[in-house]
């Protein structure tokens, strides 16, 4: 049985704060400070450049990747860390396009994270492909025989709507296409099963539900059937078969190693590795059940106490990730007032109050306090103050 009280104690949660924004940035695991300090003190400081071998920095992307693999239904040796999520999206989509010569269509949906669409649009314009964007509920109907790549974020960043990965992957394969799944709002939040779904490529960030810290490196997974065939357009030094032979021509490494690009962020990986310690012994089915319990209680509480808010997420928890959105015409100001009262969620344009539920550290007391404070902010009109209407650079 997963002990969620123990996992909550593993995080530093500031006094007086109810934190429901782990779907943007997870809180700091308590022992991350010591892990990073030890890495700097005992490795970087004393070993200098020999740390690449002596401290295992060079193999760190694969070792950390193996720890994430268990959380997303992947196998050992199938996940590698490094770079940003946008770079990993570019690698995955470009590799999938190469594997489907003669097909030039990339299909995505309007609920996808805009950055993924920007990457796909730039790639399509560069190689002469076409990016088609349809409504999330219309994706299945647009999987046609000219499709090369289906690129989707499993959980919609605004609504929390969850795609049926297995069904859409099967439909794409039936049409002869490959799939690229973005797990930014899935990894560490829901029970992902990449191998069970037969997915082809998957990518994700680690600073949200995995709690790796701001700017923590992204991951990429390639189905083992494709691992020695995938060739991304972005071919970097660390993805070479013999990087220290310094050959002029590129020869891809075997398997997932070819998806490496540049020098790994060793300090950031140390923090992420510390965060992944908290996941030891966590049952993903129990995590999913806990997520549903929290989000269902929140929806019920908000709808009872705040009738002016409109649910912006699927009502069926099976069709929802681990976040809930409500709409309000002054959502930005309402969220700023909430934050000022110690309940931290976030705002997504144009009018969405977004709340993330991370079972590792959120509990029913968080739900009750968030509902109470939100109701008070609306009832007393606390949001309608000048300071709550001023837009910051990051919303």
TrEMBL record:
Q: Which Pfam families match?
A: KYNU_C
The reaction(s) catalysed by this protein are: L-kynurenine + H2O = anthranilate + L-alanine + H(+); 3-hydroxy-L-kynurenine + H2O = 3-hydroxyanthranilate + L-alanine + H(+)
The Swiss-Prot or TrEMBL record lists the needed cofactor(s) as:
pyridoxal 5'-phosphate
- Cellular component GO terms, alphabetically? cytoplasm
Name the domain of life: Bacteria
An example GO BP is: NAD+ biosynthetic process
Which keywords fit this entry according to its UniProt record? Hydrolase, Pyridine nucleotide biosynthesis, Pyridoxal phosphate
Keyword rRNA-binding recorded: no
Q: What is its EC number?
A: 3.7.1.3
List the molecular function annotations (GO) for this entry: kynureninase activity; pyridoxal phosphate binding
Annotated pyridoxal 5'-phosphate binding sites: 85-86, 113-116, 153, 182, 185, 207, 237, 263
- N6-(pyridoxal phosphate)lysine modification, residue list: 208
Quote the pathway field. Answer: Amino-acid degradation; L-kynurenine degradation; L-alanine and anthranilate from L-kynurenine: step 1/1; Cofactor biosynthesis; NAD(+) biosynthesis; quinolinate from L-kynurenine: step 2/3
The record's annotation in HAMAP family points to: Kynureninase
Query: What is the stated purpose of this protein?
Result: Catalyzes the cleavage of L-kynurenine (L-Kyn) and L-3-hydroxykynurenine (L-3OHKyn) into anthranilic acid (AA) and 3-hydroxyanthranilic acid (3-OHAA), respectively.
Q: Which family does it belong to?
A: Belongs to the kynureninase family.
- Kindly give the PANTHER family that the UniProt entry links to this protein: KYNURENINASE (PTHR14084:SF0)
- Assembly: Homodimer.
The protein's name: Kynureninase
Q: Which gene encodes it?
A: kynU
């Amino acid at each position: 049985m997963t002990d969620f009280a123990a996992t909550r104690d593993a995080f530093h949660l500031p006094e007086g704060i109810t934190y429901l924004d782990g779907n943007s940035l997870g809180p700091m695991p308590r022992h991350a400070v010591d892990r990073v300090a030890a890495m700097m003190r005992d490795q970087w400081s004393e070993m200098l450049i020999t740390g690449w071998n002596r401290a295992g920095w060079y193999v760190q992307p694969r070792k950390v990747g193996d720890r994430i693999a268990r959380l997303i239904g992947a196998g050992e040796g199938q996940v590698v860390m490094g770079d940003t999520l946008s770079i990993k999206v570019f690698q995955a989509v470009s590799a999938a396009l190469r594997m489907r010569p003669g097909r030039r269509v990339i299909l995505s949906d309007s609920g996808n994270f805009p950055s993924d669409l920007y990457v796909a649009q730039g790639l399509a314009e560069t190689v002469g492909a076409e990016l088609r964007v349809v409504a999330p509920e219309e994706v299945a109907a647009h999987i046609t025989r000219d499709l090369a790549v289906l690129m989707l974020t499993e959980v919609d960043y605004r609504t929390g709507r969850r795609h049926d990965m297995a069904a859409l992957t099967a439909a794409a394969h039936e049409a002869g296409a490959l799939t690229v799944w973005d797990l930014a709002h899935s990894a560490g939040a829901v029970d992902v099963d990449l191998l069970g779904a037969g997915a082809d490529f998957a990518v994700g960030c680690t600073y949200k539900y995995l709690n790796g810290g701001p700017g923590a490196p992204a991951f990429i997974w390639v189905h083992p059937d494709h691992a020695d065939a995938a060739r991304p357009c972005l071919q970097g030094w660390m993805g070479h078969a013999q990087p220290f032979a310094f050959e002029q021509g590129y020869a891809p490494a075997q398997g997932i190693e070819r998806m490496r690009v540049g020098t790994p962020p060793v300090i950031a990986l140390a923090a992420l590795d510390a965060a992944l310690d908290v996941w030891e012994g966590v049952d993903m089915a129990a995590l999913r059940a806990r997520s549903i319990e929290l989000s269902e209680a929140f929806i019920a509480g908000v709808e009872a106490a705040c009738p002016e808010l409109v649910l912006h997420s699927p009502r069926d928890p099976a069709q929802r990730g681990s976040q809930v959105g409500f709409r309000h015409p002054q959502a930005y100001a309402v969220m700023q007032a909430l934050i000022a009262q110690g309940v931290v969620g976030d705002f997504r344009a144009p009018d969405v109050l977004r709340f993330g539920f991370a079972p590792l550290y959120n509990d029913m007391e968080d739900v009750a306090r968030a509902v109470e404070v939100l109701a008070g902010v609306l009832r007393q009109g606390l949001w309608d103050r000048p300071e709550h209407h001023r837009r910051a650079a990051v919303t």
